[in-house]
């Protein structure tokens, strides 16, 4: 077959088996239980597929989600998921076709003004206009690590709860954080996807998922055996830890750290400003390394930039570089009033700043500073003071955080 046999369309239920075969191969993941969940998790009519003749050779899904933006407003976001190209069809432009179809489709339909994803590899998505808008601090803390003596753990107990009982409590606690910038909505199937617990995941004696509940917090975790009978050294991996109060947060961490036999607690999706470091008596006991979490793409810059609130008044002309989405390319005047509300109009004036759309996506939630991007040469300033003013205005507090993977 030649390249000319390739064509792209959205899928239907009839394509599901082919999609499962392509993506199981692409993700090197042969687990039918996961695909049972994916039937509910994926919105099949929002999955684009590339066909080589009649053979599906690549797919990319979009989920209908809401994302909390600075100011507490929620925006629809297309949560891009399960992107893969069949083994044997790699580096022939399949992913490029999928990304183009998705972005153009969103724009033409006037659908979500922003798209988001979690990247399997950090080198892939910048070329498609995605930038890193939130990070996780992969954190490891030794078991039994003491807190500062004055840390308030409240009077409520943390208890282990069976999965079925825990799920509605966890989802309710999670939804109570919906005002936090970076919070993303999840469907029931999305919770199943996040808390997937198939037999294949319990290899090497790994436990089932445990659910630890506090009235103001929760943790989902798994333990893996290690050490010996006389010196057990189990490892705990936290899938998710959420809370609605500082006391709940501290109580849940304390509970996890105090489980006997645990040599260390690891939490990959830890917020970069998680209080654990300052709860510990010795902050160096928390080992952390930052990793990219939510990558954001402004599909329509004019609709996206007015959807959030800003931290300071601003009047700036942005030259936006976006060759993949030409409707964004060019100069836009962004004006922010005293209340932090924005207007965006196409501009004829000289630009104050030049910025690529991926870097605008990185700065959009207010976690990545425009001044930092400028220092790395990713934003060019044409009027003195424009970077500082825009950087201040884009900042968000508290630190944006997205716990969701997809
Ligand atoms: C949101 C998510 O689902 S993230 C998960 C992404 N999927 C996976 O990691 C599953 C395994 N990998 C795959 O299925 C494929 O290798 C994919 C999807 C990453 C790439 O698909 P391909 O069809 O081979 O990509 P395609 O040929 O369209 O390449 C487009 C561009 O991306 C680049 N690229 C592709 N894969 C990678 C990579 N892993 N790292 C860096 N660059 C990459 C190509 O070099 C090309 O660059 P160019 O525009 O400068 O020419």
Summarize the structure.
25% of the residues lie in helices and 29% in strands. The protein is of the alpha+beta class and 406 residues long.
Q: What can you tell me about this protein's structure?
A:
- The two termini are 33 Å apart.
- Helix 2 (32-41) runs antiparallel to helix 5 (188-194).
- The relative contact order is 0.15.
- The protein contains 11 helices and 19 strands.
- The strands form 3 sheets. It has a 7-stranded mixed β-sheet. Strands 8-9-10-11-12-7-13 form a 7-stranded mixed β-sheet, with helices on both faces. Strands 17-16-15-18-19 form a 5-stranded mixed β-sheet.
- 25% of the residues lie in helices and 29% in strands.
- The protein has helices at residues 16-26, 32-41, 94-109, 163-175, 188-194, 246-257, 276-279, 301-305, 357-363, 370-375, 386-394, and strands at 6-10, 48-52, 55-68, 74-85, 114-117, 131-132, 135-142, 159-160, 210-214, 217-224, 234-243, 262-267, 287-292, 295-298, 314-321, 330-336, 342-346, 353-356, 379-381.
- It has 406 residues and is α+β, with helices and mostly antiparallel strands.
- It is globular, with a radius of gyration of 23 Å.
- Strand 15 (314-321) and strand 16 (330-336) form a beta hairpin.
- Bound molecules: acetyl coenzyme *A (ACO).
Work out the number of β strands. 19
Morphology call: globular
Distance between the termini: 33 Å
- Rg over CA atoms: 23 Å
The kinds of small molecule bound in this structure are: acetyl coenzyme *A
Name the helicity range. 10-25%
Mean pLDDT rating? 97
Would you tell me the structural class of the helices and strands? alpha+beta
Structure annotation, total helices: 11
Strand sequence of the main sheet, in spatial order?
1-2-3-4-5-14-6
Q: Give, in order, the helices and strands.
A: EHHEEEHEEEEHHEEEHEHEEHEEEEHHEH
Stretches where pLDDT falls below 50 for ≥5 residues? none
Q: Biggest sheet: strands, sense, closure?
A: 7 strands, mixed
- The percent range for strand residues is 25-35%
Protein name: Acetyltransferase
Subunit structure: Homohexamer; trimer of dimers.
Organism: Actinoalloteichus fjordicus
Pfam family, one: Acetyltransf_17
């Amino acid at each position: 077959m030649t390249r000319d046999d390739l064509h792209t369309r959205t899928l239907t239920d009839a394509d599901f088996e082919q999609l499962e075969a392509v993506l199981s191969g692409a993700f090197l993941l042969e687990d039918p239980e996961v695909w049972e969940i994916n039937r509910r998790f994926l919105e099949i009519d929002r999955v684009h597929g590339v066909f080589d003749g009649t053979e599906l050779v690549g797919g990319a899904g979009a989920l209908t989600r809401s994302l909390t933006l600075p100011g507490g407003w929620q925006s629809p976001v297309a949560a891009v998921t399960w992107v893969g190209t069949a083994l044997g069809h790699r580096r022939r432009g399949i992913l490029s076709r999928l990304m183009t179809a998705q972005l153009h489709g969103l724009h033409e339909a006037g659908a979500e003004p922003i798209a988001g994803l979690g990247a399997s590899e950090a080198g892939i998505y910048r070329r498609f206009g995605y930038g890193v808008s939130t990070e996780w601090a992969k954190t490891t803390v030794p078991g039994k690590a003491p807190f500062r003596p004055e840390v308030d753990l409240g009077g409520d107990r943390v208890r282990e709860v069976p999965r079925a009982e825990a799920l509605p409590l966890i989802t309710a606690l999670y939804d109570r954080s919906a005002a936090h910038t970076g919070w993303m909505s999840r469907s029931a199937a999305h919770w199943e996807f996040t808390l997937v617990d198939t037999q294949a995941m319990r290899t090497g004696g790994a436990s089932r998922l445990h659910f630890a509940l506090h009235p103001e917090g929760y943790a989902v975790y798994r333990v893996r055996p290690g050490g010996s009978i006389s010196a057990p050294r189990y490892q705990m991996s936290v899938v998710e830890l959420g809370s609605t109060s500082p006391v709940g947060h501290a109580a849940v961490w304390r509970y996890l750290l105090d489980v006997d036999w645990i040599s260390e607690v690891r939490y990959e999706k830890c917020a970069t400003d998680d209080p654990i470091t300052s709860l510990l008596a010795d902050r160096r006991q928390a080992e952390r390394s930052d990793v990219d979490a939510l990558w954001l793409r402004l599909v329509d810059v004019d609709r996206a930039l007015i959807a959030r609130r800003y931290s300071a008044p601003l009047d700036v002309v942005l030259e936006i570089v976006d060759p993949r989405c030409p409707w964004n390319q060019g100069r836009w005047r962004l004006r922010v009033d005293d209340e932090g509300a924005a207007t965006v109009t196409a501009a004829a004036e000289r630009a104050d700043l030049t910025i690529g759309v991926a870097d605008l996506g990185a700065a959009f939630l207010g976690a990545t500073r425009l001044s930092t991007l400028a220092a790395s040469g990713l934003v060019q300033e044409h009027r003195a003071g424009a970077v500082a003013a825009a950087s201040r205005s884009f900042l968000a507090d508290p630190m944006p955080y997205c716990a969701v993977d997809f």
